[in-house]
Design a protein that fits this description.
Blueprint lengths: L13 E7 L2 E7 L8 H45 L4 H4 L13 H10 L17 H34 L7 H27 L7 H9 L2 H8 L5 H11 L2 H18 L3 H11 L2
Antiparallel strand pairs: 1-2
Helix pairs in contact: 1-4, 1-5, 4-5, 4-6, 5-9, 5-10, 6-7
Length: 276
Amino acid sequence: MSAEKAGLLPPFFVCAQRETGKLSIRVTLTFHFQSVRNVEFITLYYIKESMENILLKISIMLVPALLAITCHEVSHGYIADRLGDNTARYMGRLTLNPLKHLDIIGTLMVFIVGIGWAKPVPVNFNNLRNPKKDMIWVALAGPVTNVTLALFSALALRGLAAAGEGMLAGTPAMIALDPILLMLAFSVYINLLLAIFNLIPVPPLDGGRVLTGLLPYRQALIFSRIEPYGMIIIILLVFFTNIFSYILLPILNVGIRILAGPESALIYKVTSFLMR
């Protein structure tokens, strides 16, 4: 008869292993108690483990997420500045200091649902030299920047993963390399997701701005009138339709496989762990 069936071990027997690519996080816990008072200790353990998981996730996600969101917004302001509108420059928003762009709710949403936002960089399209055409380039700057960051992150991920193949687990070099690999993996994911999501053709998203710039003047004027209701439309599309599963996710998967190649599996494992 097993110890558990004999009543020697409680149902609070945990042996869980989370695989995150090259990094394996293993938590093994066995409690052998005779008194209900030990339940308090078990509860405290689970609270402690939960906090450790939260801190681990934040340490992996924070830098890539802030960099992705900050560079996205700065690129809008930079291209607008080059095309005639210096509003962002005058307001001190052409900086990579994330505190200048931070939106508390948008940042928290990165850790809750895996995608977030920053305070939009102000752009006065009327100041652009050719407002209708230049609007397209200003809008595209954000997604293009995110795809570029995803590309560099994927190249670094593939290079460092190949370099780490010959390293022994537990060595100082491997211990230092593991968190970098995890952050690079999440960087590929978050940058591609931001680029794809922002290209949804609904204003005020970048895709909506691009479509407005491409449409003939009259149709563009009519289309731009939905902008006050744009965020409501986006929320309805994302949370009450299958647009993410049937459109955004397949595009995201193709992008990950193209950029990360053999390291795509690592990205999927990391994001699966982070989104739990």
